[in-house]
Amino acid sequence: MHLDRLWLSDFRSYEAAELVPAPEGLTVVSGANGEGKTNLLEAVAYLASLRSFRGAPGEALIRVGAPHAVVRAEVDRAGRRLLIEAELRPSGRDRVQVNRQALRRTRDLLGSLQVTVFAPDDLTLVKGGPSARRQYLDDLLVALHPRHDATQSEVERVLRQRNALLKQAGGRATPDVVATLDVWDAKLASAGETLVAARAGLTAALSPVAAATYEQVAVSAPKARGAVRLAYQPSWDGPLLEALAAARTDDLRRGVTTVGPHRDELAAWIGELPARTHASQGEQRSLALALRLAGHSVVTGRLETPPVLLLDDVFSELDPDRSAALLAALPAGQALLTTAGGLPPGARPAVTVRVEGGKLLD
Amino acid sequence: MYAAPVQDLIDELGRLPGVGPKSAQRIAFHILKLPADDAMRLARSIDVVKRTVSWCRRCFNIAEGGDDAECDICRDDRRDPTVLCVVEEPRDIVAVERTRDFRGRYHVMQGAISPIDGIGPEQLRVRELLARIEGEGVGEIILCFSPNIEGDATGLYLASLLKALPVRVTKIASGLPVGGDLEYADELTLGRALEGRREVDA
Q1: A333 secondary structure, DSSP code
Q2: Which of A104, A251, A254, A299 has its CA 20 to 30 A from that of A352?
Q3: Chains A & B: contacts with CB separation below 8 Å
Q4: Which residues of B touch A162 (CB under 8 A)?
């Protein structure tokens, strides 16, 4: 799939802007820091997920002083044209349309446009806590099938209810608390098992691909360490319902749910060593790139059309060798890239756009 | 800051469900501009509703009268006392009544289990429901809750509580809207409809 055209009005720093990227190959957005390069990619990604990949709240995406923002894009999906429009409002829900038809639920938009985002802080994927890695899996699951979004929000909501109950109980297991906990346990177990089965299945599919992409982007003698391996590690053994029952006393005492999909880990090894704690900074960067590329490849394989690649200022964080390796490893399809400096040698942009003072210049 | 009476009004309106600070302010200024008659009519209807309407002592639907009031449905002898349809709110009774297919009686839980909102079984009319099952010779309980997380949880809770009693417990089916198109159904609803499929009598 590719983006034919993007229009912004009152989105972030842009009063009005129009971008026509190359349908195939690299579109480079250059400009000094703070000019609003990332905002362009953020707008594209917003149409894919209805949230900011920078984790910004909705109202931060609306230009200061404007009543609302509009992001509109023309997308080509295997020859089918989609006009996707989102109106962002400071309060209340966004209004979303596809081909001028209003969507009843914003969730129905998921899947119309798909993107793979490479962000400068992707290193946290390897180096940071487990929540970044769970988010990585969950985002990919939604890209593979929108139904996973419903499962994820159910797990989240049941957890919030269960934790609220645990806090209110104040450590006392009265008959009422026990009876209601039974109910939340049953709901968390059924939604949680579904989510975890999907995450584990995805991890199994990702692991060999991540190993192959790591070999492509790792520059310093990758074979010396051995292959990259991923494994999904649940925070419990056996059926989740039994694990919740076993953890109940502990949960009541601590006032939080201590087992479940929200405590799981996606573990990564390079050879025999855990990547999070034992790999060098350079290896961790390569692995982060490999994880993004692997996700992109798995989604491409399943959907039979590659998501749009969004590379936000990635070369600023990579040394020249790794930059060149990433460029060489980039799969076919459309890619939008922002950069404040130059491009690594070997980069052949199809279209270059400059951002200056909130305007796009050819 | 507004004059104290205006600020009081804004604060009171802001306590209403679904009314945020901005809306509260807008409604307050609307009321300020109203002719005195219109404003007094609003005040009077609030006053009248609070004085003359209370909960049905049997099913906790809304009922006219004092503390021992009974609602129209509970007073109606033609309704089948052996089947109880359990709902969250009085407005759900109105929805079920519109079907004209249900001839039994109701029991309003007055909420759904939701710890986030501080609502547990003790805030609901659970004890009253149990008392009615024994006292009124109820043979079937129909759980009729919204198909969301809180509604499901309330249904599960009641189902496990009622297991010990000699009463049949059923739950309304969930699935596709009549007159809708299959292709427009979301996968969750369609999934539930598949789960709840039935043998076809031919």
Answers
A1: S
A2: A299
A3: 55
A4: 115
Distance from CA of B194 to the nearest CA of A (A): 15
Q: Using 50, 70 and 90 to split pLDDT, how confident is the model at A325?
A: confident
Amino acid at residue number B124: L
The number of domains in chain A is 1
Alpha-carbon span B17 to B112, nearest angstrom: 16
* Residue in chain A nearest B20 by alpha carbon: A91
Rounded Cα distance, A71 and A88, in Å:
8
Cα distance between residue B30 and residue B65, in whole Å: 32
Say if A193 falls within a structural domain: yes
Average pLDDT value for chain B: 92
Rounded average pLDDT over B114-122? 92
ipTM tops 0.95: no
CATH T-level assignment (fold) for domain B77-199:
Dna Topoisomerase Vi A Subunit; Chain: A, domain 2 (3.40.1360)
B157 close contact with A: CB closer than 8 A: yes
Q: DSSP code of A62?
A: B
Residues of chain B with CATH 1.10.8.420: 4-51
The CATH number given to whatever domain includes residue A180 is 1.20.1050.90
Kindly report which listed range (A149-153, A202-206, A294-298) carries the lowest average pLDDT score: A149-153
Using a CB-CB cut-off of 8 Å, the residues of chain B touching A257 are none
Contact assignment for B187 to A91 by CB distance below 8 Å = no
Q: How far apart are CA A170 and CA A177, in angstroms?
A: 10
Flag whether A261 is in a domain. Answer: yes
Quickly state the pLDDT bin for B33 (edges 50, 70, 90). very high
User: CATH fold of B4-51, please?
Assistant: Helicase, Ruva Protein; domain 3 (1.10.8)
Which segments of chain B belong to CATH 3.40.1360.10?
77-199
Q: Which is nearest to B126 in space by CA: B139, B142, B113, B145? A: B113
Domain assignment present for residue A267? The answer is yes
Residue A230 lies in a domain: yes
Contact A165 B20 (CB under 8 A): no
